[in-house]
Structure formats: C-alpha cells, structure tokens
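Example 3.2
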Amino acid sequence: MTGPLSVGPVAAAGPPAGPPVDPEIRRAARGLEGVFLSLLVGEMLKGTEVGDGNPLYAGIATEKLGERLAEDGGIGLAALLERQLGGVR
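Structure, written as tokens:
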C-alpha cells in the first residue's frame, strides 16, 4: 500500500559490517540474544491480552518474537558476545 500513511523500511537490519566472525560463535551469540529477548518480551506482555491468553500460544509468540528481534539486529548483545568470545577474526 502506498500513500501518505504507508510505512516503508526504517533502517537496514543488522549491525554494521565489521571484521569477519566465526559462524559458530555468531550463531551461539544470536541464539542467546534471542532467548534473552524472548524472556524480556514475555515479561513485557504479562498483564496484556496476549500474556493472559492461552499459555501455550503466549509462549510460542514470545519465543518467535524474541528470535525475530535478535535476527533483525537485536539490542547489540550478540555483537558484544562475539567480541568477548573471541569470534572476531
């Protein structure tokens, strides 16, 4: 949909390009960030319609949202972990 109220991409997803990183460390760091963001989203949704609904669906929704947030750049935790674990080549 186009027009004055349409919303396009805000920014490029992911962290800025840097030195190459070991793929195993990158996957582990993003996975941990996804788990952290899932827990954060779960806490934020407590007391809402989503959080008060079926616990199975609420759990799946928070897990998938956390994973997606991490894939789209997250909050920088994965990049920090990559540096700390020596994954930067």
